[in-house]
């Protein structure tokens, strides 16, 4: 099908919203919102206000096609803006906690691997043989050969990040004074969340378990899965993607209740594992274990309780928040002072 939608001015975009039934009492304010956010981005927040299609007409255009073009009666542009602003603040709050987890992971990974081998991140023999030798699934990129295994894949990624950081003061200082490889406690400073998660997957099992234990998790493989999920969450937030009602690419796996503290055991199995609640609960759990005085879980609870009052949508239905979540210890416990 040929694409035939024309370019529209901001005023025309607001007029289109009005034609669809969205009430815009302040034309200038509506135009300002479209100029700031963009009509296409706003359309993701308009979508929940569209009427549901009859069951036999859903998913005919695409697997995500559930709603008609018609907007629910008495939908105001302020409703749409409130939902967008809620989601924006949700992303910023998640990034705050993700920073705590990322820095905490850097610190523990550098400590444990550095004790084994100062340059363990580039020495295959200091990592888990079975994990390093696992064949790479990544194809060749351009003129580059495809990496043979996961260790080669890691080294390729590491060298790229190392090159990108070559002008950082701490790298220049080390190169000028010592030359050679960077020790792990320097290298972790330029590893992004995804690279840290990859390196964690290559650690020896005993090292994985030690890091996981320090973060309140019994078993390195479980923490490794969480890091994958949180890296995905981090990318969504960093790229300003819609978050609040997203169906996640990585469905949160079940785990044994004995692997975590009592405050997280309610998400060990069941629930809407393709929704946001499980990974955000894991994020709250890790944040509190890394930084015991953190008020982030309380701050997140306060924000979610301000979810816009809109018929047909809610944190429970669209984000997977369990009934009575706000009174659970994970979200209600006040951190110790001092």
TrEMBL record:
Q: Which InterPro entries match?
A: Abi_system_AbiD/AbiF-like
Q: What is this protein called?
A: Abi family protein
Q: Which organism is it from?
A: Rhodococcus erythropolis (Arthrobacter picolinophilus)
